[in-house]
Amino acid sequence: MRYILFLLFICVALPAQSRVIGRLSANRYDADSTSNPYGAGSRYDADSINNPHGEYGSRYSNTSANNPYATNAPKLYDSEGNYRGRLSTNRYDPDSISNPYGRYGSKYSPDSINNPHGAGSRFRADSPNNPYGEGWYIVVDD
Questions:
Q1: Theoretical Cys-Cys bridge with 96: which of 15, 49, 73, 88, CB 3.0 to 4.6 Å?
Q2: Does the residue 113 lie in any domain?
Q3: Is 25 left (phi over 0), alpha (psi -120 to 50) or beta?
Q4: pTM to 2 decimal places
């Protein structure tokens, strides 16, 4: 049911050029997980954030999760459609999950993936840190 609600959210709330390229998740068994080396986490998949030569995994692409200076990194949404920041290694982007002082990167913020007692708890079903959970959707603008 949550998946259907999220797809409805994607269709209605996001621009027409947005699409889901996988899920940020520690679940190695989910085909859409970035931790699954044979699924969305494959280093050979063109849309994978783990592909060092792809648009979303390169250290040089402005839309990459791995470029420390990227300004248009992929966005993260939880299973209920709540925005959870940008999947980015840019420590200066206010929406980046790597910004230790930002809302989505601080270990004290309830909205942060880095808070083990908040959104990043490994006991939450939709947390990216739960090894058997759903994780968060990675959305890119085309």
A1: 88
A2: no
A3: beta
A4: 0.84
Cβ neighbours around 15 below 10 Å, total:
7
Structural domain count of the chain? 1
Residue 37 in tokens: 């080396």
Q: What is the pLDDT along the chain (142 residues), one digit of tens a residue?
A: 555 545 555 555 555 689 999 999 999 999 999 999 999 999 999 999 999 999 999 999 999 999 999 999 999 999 999 999 999 999 999 999 999 999 999 999 999 999 999 999 999 999 999 999 999 999 999 7
Give how far Cα 1 sits from Cα of 4, 9, 101, 126, 129, Å: 5, 12, 35, 14, 22
- The identity of residue 117, as a single letter, is H
5 domain-assigned = yes
Query: What separation in angstroms does the CA of 60 have from each of 47, 49, 57, 107?
Result: 15, 13, 9, 27
Write phi, then psi, for 141 (nearest 5 degrees): -95, 125
The answer to whether position 114 is within a domain reads: no
Under DSSP, the state recorded for 67 is: -
Cα within 13 Å of Cα(3), Cβ side: 5
Which structural domain, as residue segments, surrounds residue 43?
1-81+119-142
Distance CA 86, CA 32 (A): 18
